[in-house]
Amino acid sequence: MGIVTNSTDKYQACIDACQRCAQACYECFKACLNEEDVAARKKCISMLIDCAMMCQMSVSMMAMDSQFAKQHCELCAQICEQCAQDCEMFKDEHCQKCAQECRRCADECRKMASM
């Protein structure tokens, strides 16, 4: 629920999913940097940052009830889906968990964008 108003309560599930996804991406980013095959993960590591930053911006847009929040969340869903696909290429647990969070976020962003 909103912190100081209730005007964004309708977005709360998406806000929560975006916050979790951003955190998962940052955690996965750090873990991937410590993997032996870090060079093979270059594209995925870059995507993790794109996804985390997009999710954080989506939270901001929804919290402000921006007129562009829905369009922003549509793009966020696309980026989350791509990040999930990239993470799924690696079989370690942190990448698999991150992919799950990205897919959940993409689903919530699509729901929000269709409101």
From TrEMBL:
Lineage: Bacteria, Bacillati, Bacillota, Clostridia, Eubacteriales
Classification via Gene3D superfamilies: 1.20.1270.360
Top-level taxonomic group: Bacteria
Sections of the chain in a coiled coil: none
Name this polypeptide is given: Four-helix bundle copper-binding protein
